[in-house]
């Protein structure tokens, strides 16, 4: 049975964000700004329905979806694109596949103790973020 990810998580660290954003064709000014942000995550996980809020001082991004059901995701706030997104479980990891203009785009979340890990990929770039559960 997959873990329940419900909780509020505070940003701890990230690696390779600038190269990840460059692969998404984000301009240098916005890349520098995003690399300074320390996002929090709030996850509400109820059965096969999830809401994942990424919270920053600049803007929030909300994903509201049913597991295993493809939907059109508007990534306008991120990079101006839309893609066909499916989120499902692979063992203990929540895996997102984002089909669209960019190859190999998606992410995966998993828990290690009280820490939430996020591995984001696009093209050949990988960014890893870690968050600490606070409630």
Question: Which topology does CATH recognise?
Answer: Lipocalin
Quaternary structure of the protein: single chain
Helicity, in percent? Answer: 10-25%
Q: Give the distance, in angstroms, between the N- and C-terminal Cα atoms.
A: 22 Å
- Number of folding domains? 1
Q: Helical segment tally?
A: 2
H-E string: EHHEEEEEEEEE
**Helical/strand content category:** mainly beta
Subunit structure: Monomer.
Family: Belongs to the calycin superfamily. Fatty-acid binding protein (FABP) family.
Protein name: RET5 protein
GO molecular function: lipid binding
Description:
The chain is built from 2 helices and 10 strands. Helix 1 (17-23) runs antiparallel to helix 2. The protein has 135 residues and is mainly β. It starts with 6 loop residues before the first strand and ends with a strand. A 10-stranded antiparallel sheet has the order 4-3-2-1-10-9-8-7-6-5. The chain has one domain: Beta Barrel (Lipocalin). The chain has helices at 17-23, 28-36; strands spanning 7-15, 40-46, 49-55, 61-66, 71-75, 81-90, 93-99, 106-112, 115-122, 125-133. Helix content is 12%, strand content 56%. Strand 9 and strand 10 (125-133) form a beta hairpin. Monomer. This is RET5 protein. It comes from Caloenas nicobarica.
